[in-house]
Backbone:
């Protein structure tokens, strides 16, 4: 039994005294203790060493005490496990030296044995669960197939992922073969994450908002929904589609337990578009954590008032930024705990 | 009298046989004749030499024959005229070596005499009008104050303009002083563009979609609306806010003649959100021009069916991409002309 089960209760839609709170990228570059580890170990060493991944995961629990932990990892461990080279370049971000550009490239991509290729993630989960000692739940995550494909085709981050989109629109059959392989791998991966101990999973569709509503259905949602269907009996599934306000209606009808929303979607719009029944998660603008602390606290309370305290998980609308002062991050968490008191 | 007045009639909401069509960035890098000039003259030489700007403006009219021309220029001529250094680095984009970061920086920014600093734009308009010979209307444009401020503070392009947003949220008074100076300059600039001969103006709010609906009202829409109010009696004003679906309701109540929408907003959503009465412009995904030509033509016809042929200007949902084959761009224009025949 998890001692602080606010997050799991909100996912079930139960009535709570106050909503739970966590922050996307809460284990990250705004924390001095994270920077100390980053300076000693490179990116994939941190991901692939269970002791490091677990330590990084619990750092924010100690420092700012959110109501859930999220396993430190990266969405790009999946393409890496599928045989696609992935590098993480300092001051540049992900770099995939051999991007997918043809059907022949797609055919070479494998659906791996996740125990062989991603065992370090499952070990990190087991270790993290021990360290958390059932204080708060642990979230596992994966990128959406579309978002993973964006990197696999583009070869790096991008403002608009035009190469990835061009690949879909000029070679749709090849794109669908690749998307299905990523989906199959992701399902195996997330099922094993749940078996290893995560209490919920989140799918990050970071680049779904680059697609039109019609293309989103074809190239992103169709595959996300396969993952939801495969996982829904195992653990609660949260779907966060950045910029995907236009798909909230479809998402709200799925078996997902909660939907993440970004800050461009007002609480009222988010409730309306998602059908009004599903738990929502979000949506504080990460840049707004640069406001003075009293402004942050006031805005958090207004946000809870607008979403309503039930069927709601307080979060940012995207990952926390590296330049946020730790006391501002803590003020965000504290503001939620002070709600209703 | 403009011979092809479809575009102006759509801006007035008149009934038309078919909607007009033009493309954002139609004078640009997908055209071989543009590339030939780009290889000879650097960016600001092209902007600041009326003969070159006029020639580039009419290139797409000759090649693919859209229903309107848009003056070749750049939104960053405004901060440049205000005393902020702006460079255009090849393979990098805009670079502002002395970005605005303090109230002292803001105080140094001037509202210039636009005749002195931007006379080359007005000369280019007069020359272009002669070259167009009243065949099609000419559009002039400016960036929104918020979008200009994004570059002035960030110092370069960005995925999320976190520095610019951080400046607003930590120094809101300074941000508002700067936004008002940009607004004042833009009004003087656009009024003089109209006097020089442009038949309509478009305001590009390229980065408005980075803001929450509440922050959008405070840091972007308030200033765009000042520009609309100042210009509405002089010429039709089109507002294109990329990612600003959440503000279409407010925009639809303004004195703007048309609203641009991007491809994440379905025609049905766009009509609903904007109130159903105002002319809309958009919203073909630029990457979709990489689809085979028959697919492009089919999608364009479906798009017109969904928006309706009246109170509608066919366009892309953002600028055309450099890698679009010219015959695909032409197919987009031709598809509109073939509609209803």
Residues:
């Amino acid at each position: 039994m998890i001692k602080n089960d606010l997050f799991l209760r909100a996912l079930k839609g139960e009535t709570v005294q106050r909503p739970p709170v966590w922050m996307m990228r809460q284990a990250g570059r705004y924390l001095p203790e994270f920077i100390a580890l980053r300076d000693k170990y490179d990116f994939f060493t941190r991901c692939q060493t269970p002791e490091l991944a677990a330590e990084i995961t619990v750092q924010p629990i100690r420092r700012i005490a959110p109501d859930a932990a999220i396993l430190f990892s990266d969405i790009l461990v999946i393409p890496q496990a599928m045989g696609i080279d992935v590098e993480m370049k300092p001051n540049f971000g992900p770099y995939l030296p051999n991007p997918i550009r043809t059907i022949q490239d797609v055919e070479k991509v494998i659906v791996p044995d996740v125990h062989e290729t991603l065992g370090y993630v499952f070990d990190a989960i087991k270790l993290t669960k021990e360290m958390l000692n059932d204080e708060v739940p642990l979230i596992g995550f994966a990128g959406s197939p579309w978002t993973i494909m964006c990197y696999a085709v583009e070869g790096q981050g991008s403002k608009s992922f035009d190469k990835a989109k061009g690949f879909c629109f000029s070679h749709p059959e090849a794109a669908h073969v690749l998307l299905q392989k990523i989906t199959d791998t992701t399902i195996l991966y997330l099922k094993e994450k749940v078996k290893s101990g995560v209490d919920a999973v989140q799918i990050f569709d970071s680049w779904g908002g680059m697609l039109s509503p019609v293309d989103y259905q074809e190239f992103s949602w169709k595959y996300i929904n396969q993952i939801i269907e495969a996982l829904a009996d195992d653990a609660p599934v949260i779907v966060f589609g950045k910029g995907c306000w236009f798909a909230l209606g479809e998402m709200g009808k799925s078996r997902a337990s909660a939907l993440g929303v970004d800050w461009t979607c007002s609480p009222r719009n988010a409730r309306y578009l998602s059908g009004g029944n599903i738990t929502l998660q979000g949506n504080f603008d990460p840049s707004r954590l640069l406001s003075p602390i009293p402004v942050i606290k006031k805005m958090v309370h207004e946000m809870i008032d607008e979403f309503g305290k039930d069927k709601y998980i307080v979060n940012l609308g995207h990952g926390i930024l590296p330049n946020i002062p730790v006391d501002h991050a803590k003020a965000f968490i504290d503001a939620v705990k002070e709600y209703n008191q």
Observations:
- The CA atoms of residues 225 and 254 of chain A lie 7 Å apart.
- The longest strand of chain A covers residues 138-143.
- The two ends of chain A are 26 Å apart (CA to CA).
